[in-house]
Protein backbone atom coordinates (compact mmCIF):
# COMPACT_ATOMS: atom_id res chain seq x y z
CA UNK A 1 0.00 0.00 0.00
CA UNK A 2 1.84 3.07 -1.29
CA UNK A 3 0.28 5.42 1.22
CA UNK A 4 2.13 3.63 4.04
CA UNK A 5 5.52 4.68 2.65
CA UNK A 6 4.35 8.30 2.63
CA UNK A 7 2.95 8.26 6.18
CA UNK A 8 5.37 8.87 9.07
CA UNK A 9 5.18 6.96 12.33
CA UNK A 10 5.42 8.77 15.66
CA UNK A 11 6.77 6.60 18.48
CA UNK A 12 6.39 7.70 22.09
CA UNK A 13 9.75 6.94 23.68
CA UNK A 14 10.09 9.45 26.50
CA UNK A 15 8.41 7.93 29.55
CA UNK A 16 10.14 6.96 32.78
CA UNK A 17 9.19 3.28 32.79
CA UNK A 18 8.92 3.20 36.58
CA UNK A 19 7.31 -0.25 36.68
CA UNK A 20 10.40 -1.69 35.01
CA UNK A 21 12.95 -0.04 37.23
CA UNK A 22 15.30 -3.02 37.10
CA UNK A 23 15.95 -2.19 33.44
CA UNK A 24 15.18 1.52 33.26
CA UNK A 25 17.56 2.78 35.94
CA UNK A 26 20.21 3.03 33.23
CA UNK A 27 18.22 3.29 30.00
CA UNK A 28 14.83 4.41 28.67
CA UNK A 29 12.30 1.60 28.37
CA UNK A 30 12.30 1.60 24.53
CA UNK A 31 16.00 0.69 24.70
CA UNK A 32 15.41 -2.49 26.72
CA UNK A 33 16.70 -5.25 24.48
CA UNK A 34 14.92 -8.25 23.03
CA UNK A 35 17.26 -10.55 21.14
CA UNK A 36 20.09 -8.04 21.35
CA UNK A 37 18.07 -5.16 19.84
CA UNK A 38 16.00 -2.48 21.59
CA UNK A 39 12.26 -3.06 21.55
CA UNK A 40 12.10 0.30 19.74
CA UNK A 41 13.97 -1.30 16.83
CA UNK A 42 11.51 -4.21 16.77
CA UNK A 43 8.59 -1.78 16.51
CA UNK A 44 10.27 0.12 13.68
CA UNK A 45 11.11 -3.08 11.80
CA UNK A 46 7.48 -4.13 12.01
CA UNK A 47 6.26 -0.88 10.49
CA UNK A 48 9.05 -0.95 7.90
CA UNK A 49 7.98 -4.42 6.75
CA UNK A 50 4.81 -2.73 5.44
CA UNK A 51 6.72 0.06 3.70
CA UNK A 52 7.18 2.74 6.37
CA UNK A 53 10.29 4.84 5.77
CA UNK A 54 9.95 7.83 8.12
CA UNK A 55 9.88 7.84 11.91
CA UNK A 56 9.55 10.54 14.55
CA UNK A 57 10.89 9.35 17.90
CA UNK A 58 9.58 11.46 20.80
CA UNK A 59 12.38 11.60 23.34
CA UNK A 60 12.33 12.37 27.05
CA UNK A 61 13.91 10.32 29.83
CA UNK A 62 17.52 9.43 28.90
CA UNK A 63 16.82 10.35 25.31
CA UNK A 64 20.52 10.78 24.65
CA UNK A 65 20.89 6.99 24.68
CA UNK A 66 18.36 6.68 21.86
CA UNK A 67 20.24 9.37 19.93
CA UNK A 68 23.51 7.49 20.41
CA UNK A 69 21.92 4.28 19.14
CA UNK A 70 20.88 5.86 15.86
CA UNK A 71 24.03 7.95 15.44
CA UNK A 72 26.06 4.75 15.67
CA UNK A 73 23.53 2.55 13.92
CA UNK A 74 25.26 2.19 10.57
CA UNK A 75 28.70 1.49 12.03
CA UNK A 76 27.31 -1.04 14.47
CA UNK A 77 25.55 -3.02 11.73
CA UNK A 78 28.66 -4.17 9.91
CA UNK A 79 32.39 -3.90 9.47
CA UNK A 80 34.32 -0.65 9.63
CA UNK A 81 37.87 0.52 9.10
CA UNK A 82 39.20 3.39 11.17
CA UNK A 83 42.39 5.37 10.63
CA UNK A 84 43.52 6.26 14.13
CA UNK A 85 45.89 8.97 12.94
CA UNK A 86 43.26 10.93 11.00
CA UNK A 87 40.08 9.77 12.70
CA UNK A 88 38.61 8.76 9.34
CA UNK A 89 36.08 5.94 9.52
CA UNK A 90 35.05 3.83 6.53
CA UNK A 91 31.96 1.63 6.65
CA UNK A 92 31.97 -1.51 4.53
CA UNK A 93 28.78 -2.36 2.70
CA UNK A 94 28.46 -5.90 4.05
CA UNK A 95 25.14 -5.34 5.82
CA UNK A 96 21.80 -4.21 4.38
CA UNK A 97 21.00 -0.58 5.14
CA UNK A 98 17.69 0.53 6.54
CA UNK A 99 16.06 3.02 4.13
CA UNK A 100 14.75 5.07 7.05
CA UNK A 101 14.65 8.73 7.93
CA UNK A 102 14.61 9.02 11.72
CA UNK A 103 13.74 12.31 13.42
CA UNK A 104 14.81 12.36 17.07
CA UNK A 105 12.55 14.95 18.66
CA UNK A 106 13.24 16.27 22.16
CA UNK A 107 9.81 16.51 23.79
CA UNK A 108 10.81 16.93 27.44
CA UNK A 109 11.08 14.53 30.35
CA UNK A 110 7.83 15.69 31.97
CA UNK A 111 5.64 15.82 28.86
CA UNK A 112 2.67 13.45 28.78
CA UNK A 113 1.57 11.27 25.86
CA UNK A 114 -0.68 13.93 24.35
CA UNK A 115 1.98 16.59 24.80
CA UNK A 116 4.50 14.50 22.90
CA UNK A 117 1.99 13.84 20.11
CA UNK A 118 1.26 17.58 20.04
CA UNK A 119 4.92 18.40 19.44
CA UNK A 120 5.28 15.67 16.82
CA UNK A 121 2.18 16.90 14.98
CA UNK A 122 3.62 20.44 14.91
CA UNK A 123 6.89 19.05 13.55
CA UNK A 124 5.01 17.18 10.80
CA UNK A 125 3.13 20.35 9.77
CA UNK A 126 -0.32 19.09 8.90
CA UNK A 127 0.47 15.58 7.71
CA UNK A 128 -1.48 12.46 8.58
CA UNK A 129 0.63 10.17 10.75
CA UNK A 130 0.61 6.84 12.54
CA UNK A 131 1.55 6.64 16.20
CA UNK A 132 2.30 4.03 18.82
CA UNK A 133 3.94 3.47 22.18
CA UNK A 134 7.63 2.60 22.39
CA UNK A 135 7.14 -0.41 24.65
CA UNK A 136 4.76 -2.78 22.86
CA UNK A 137 4.98 -5.21 19.95
CA UNK A 138 2.18 -6.56 17.83
CA UNK A 139 1.59 -8.45 14.58
CA UNK A 140 -1.16 -6.11 13.35
CA UNK A 141 -1.36 -5.75 9.58
CA UNK A 142 -0.53 -2.09 8.97
CA UNK A 143 -1.97 -2.15 5.44
CA UNK A 144 -5.32 -3.34 6.76
CA UNK A 145 -5.19 -0.82 9.60
CA UNK A 146 -4.64 2.09 7.20
CA UNK A 147 -7.31 0.85 4.79
CA UNK A 148 -9.77 0.59 7.69
CA UNK A 149 -8.93 4.12 8.84
CA UNK A 150 -9.49 5.57 5.37
CA UNK A 151 -12.73 3.66 4.85
CA UNK A 152 -14.08 4.80 8.24
CA UNK A 153 -13.35 8.44 7.44
CA UNK A 154 -12.84 9.53 11.04
CA UNK A 155 -10.11 11.70 12.56
CA UNK A 156 -8.45 8.90 14.53
CA UNK A 157 -8.19 5.14 14.65
CA UNK A 158 -6.76 3.08 17.49
CA UNK A 159 -5.93 -0.60 17.37
CA UNK A 160 -8.07 -2.47 19.87
CA UNK A 161 -6.15 -5.42 21.26
CA UNK A 162 -6.86 -8.14 23.77
CA UNK A 163 -4.43 -8.10 26.71
CA UNK A 164 -2.58 -11.34 27.47
CA UNK A 165 -4.30 -13.41 30.13
CA UNK A 166 -2.21 -13.51 33.30
CA UNK A 167 -4.20 -15.74 35.62
CA UNK A 168 -5.98 -19.07 35.54
CA UNK A 169 -9.74 -19.20 35.98
CA UNK A 170 -11.43 -21.04 38.89
CA UNK A 171 -15.00 -22.26 39.22
CA UNK A 172 -16.35 -23.08 42.72
CA UNK A 173 -19.09 -25.14 44.23
CA UNK A 174 -19.08 -24.04 47.85
CA UNK A 175 -15.51 -24.53 48.97
CA UNK A 176 -14.72 -27.04 46.20
CA UNK A 177 -12.98 -26.12 42.95
CA UNK A 178 -15.00 -27.66 40.15
CA UNK A 179 -12.99 -26.26 37.25
CA UNK A 180 -9.51 -24.86 36.77
CA UNK A 181 -8.41 -23.58 33.38
CA UNK A 182 -5.93 -21.13 32.01
CA UNK A 183 -7.76 -18.04 30.83
CA UNK A 184 -7.64 -17.50 27.09
CA UNK A 185 -6.58 -14.15 25.71
CA UNK A 186 -9.80 -14.11 23.69
CA UNK A 187 -11.81 -13.90 26.92
CA UNK A 188 -10.19 -10.63 27.93
CA UNK A 189 -11.79 -7.28 27.09
CA UNK A 190 -10.58 -4.91 24.40
CA UNK A 191 -7.98 -2.28 25.28
CA UNK A 192 -6.14 0.52 23.48
CA UNK A 193 -3.16 -1.30 22.01
CA UNK A 194 -1.58 1.73 20.33
CA UNK A 195 -0.81 1.40 16.60
CA UNK A 196 -2.94 4.45 15.83
CA UNK A 197 -3.64 6.52 12.73
CA UNK A 198 -4.23 10.22 13.35
CA UNK A 199 -5.38 12.99 11.06
CA UNK A 200 -3.82 16.44 11.60
CA UNK A 201 -7.08 17.78 13.08
CA UNK A 202 -6.44 15.73 16.21
CA UNK A 203 -3.70 18.19 17.15
CA UNK A 204 -6.40 20.78 17.92
CA UNK A 205 -7.40 18.69 20.97
CA UNK A 206 -3.87 18.62 22.37
CA UNK A 207 -3.85 21.72 24.53
CA UNK A 208 -0.48 21.51 26.29
CA UNK A 209 2.53 19.32 26.99
CA UNK A 210 0.68 18.08 30.09
CA UNK A 211 -2.13 16.63 27.98
CA UNK A 212 -2.71 12.89 28.40
CA UNK A 213 -3.73 11.50 25.02
CA UNK A 214 -5.86 8.76 26.53
CA UNK A 215 -8.08 11.17 28.46
CA UNK A 216 -9.56 14.39 27.06
CA UNK A 217 -8.40 13.99 23.42
CA UNK A 218 -9.58 10.40 22.87
CA UNK A 219 -12.65 10.89 25.06
CA UNK A 220 -13.61 13.99 23.04
CA UNK A 221 -13.06 12.20 19.74
CA UNK A 222 -15.32 9.41 20.98
CA UNK A 223 -18.05 11.88 21.97
CA UNK A 224 -17.81 13.48 18.52
CA UNK A 225 -18.01 10.11 16.74
CA UNK A 226 -14.51 10.70 15.37
CA UNK A 227 -12.69 7.69 16.87
CA UNK A 228 -12.57 4.30 15.17
CA UNK A 229 -11.36 1.04 16.67
CA UNK A 230 -9.55 -1.51 14.52
CA UNK A 231 -10.08 -4.84 16.27
CA UNK A 232 -6.96 -6.98 16.31
CA UNK A 233 -7.30 -10.48 17.73
CA UNK A 234 -3.73 -11.52 16.98
CA UNK A 235 -0.59 -11.13 19.03
CA UNK A 236 -0.09 -8.03 21.18
CA UNK A 237 2.23 -7.61 24.13
CA UNK A 238 3.31 -4.59 26.13
CA UNK A 239 6.49 -4.52 28.21
CA UNK A 240 5.56 -3.20 31.64
CA UNK A 241 7.27 -5.65 33.98
CA UNK A 242 10.31 -7.89 34.23
CA UNK A 243 7.97 -10.79 33.58
CA UNK A 244 6.94 -9.18 30.28
CA UNK A 245 10.57 -8.70 29.27
CA UNK A 246 11.37 -12.32 30.09
CA UNK A 247 8.36 -13.52 28.09
CA UNK A 248 9.32 -11.50 25.00
CA UNK A 249 12.91 -12.68 25.21
CA UNK A 250 11.77 -16.28 25.47
CA UNK A 251 9.57 -15.87 22.38
CA UNK A 252 12.48 -14.35 20.46
CA UNK A 253 14.92 -17.04 21.55
CA UNK A 254 12.45 -19.75 20.53
CA UNK A 255 12.96 -18.62 16.94
CA UNK A 256 9.49 -17.55 15.79
CA UNK A 257 8.43 -14.40 17.65
CA UNK A 258 4.85 -13.58 16.58
CA UNK A 259 5.58 -9.89 15.93
CA UNK A 260 8.48 -10.57 13.51
CA UNK A 261 6.90 -9.63 10.19
CA UNK A 262 10.22 -8.89 8.45
CA UNK A 263 12.75 -11.26 6.89
TrEMBL record:
GO molecular function list: glucose-1-phosphate cytidylyltransferase activity
Keyword Protein transport: no
Lineage of source species: Bacteria, Pseudomonadati, Pseudomonadota, Betaproteobacteria, Burkholderiales
Gene from which this protein is expressed: rfbF
Protein name as it appears in the record: Glucose-1-phosphate cytidylyltransferase
SUPFAM superfamilies, per database record: Nucleotide-diphospho-sugar transferases
The UniProt record lists the keyword Ubl conjugation: no
Keywords, ordered alphabetically: Nucleotidyltransferase, Transferase
Domain of life: Bacteria
Domain called Nucleotidyl transferase: residue spans: 10-218
One Pfam family this sequence matches: NTP_transferase
InterPro entries linked to this entry: G1P_cyt_trans, G1P_cyt_trans-like, NTP_transferase_dom, Nucleotide-diphossugar_trans
EC numbers on record: 2.7.7.33
PANTHER family in the record: GLUCOSE-1-PHOSPHATE CYTIDYLYLTRANSFERASE, GLUCOSE-1-PHOSPHATE CYTIDYLYLTRANSFERASE-RELATED
Amino acid sequence: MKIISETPVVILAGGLGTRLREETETKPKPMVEIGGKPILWHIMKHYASFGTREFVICLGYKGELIKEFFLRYRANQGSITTDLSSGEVKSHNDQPREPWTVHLLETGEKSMTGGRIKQAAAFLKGRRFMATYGDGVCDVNIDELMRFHIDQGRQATITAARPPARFGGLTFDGGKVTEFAEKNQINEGWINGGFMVLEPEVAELLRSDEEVLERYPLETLTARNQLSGFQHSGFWQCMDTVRDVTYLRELWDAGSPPWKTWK
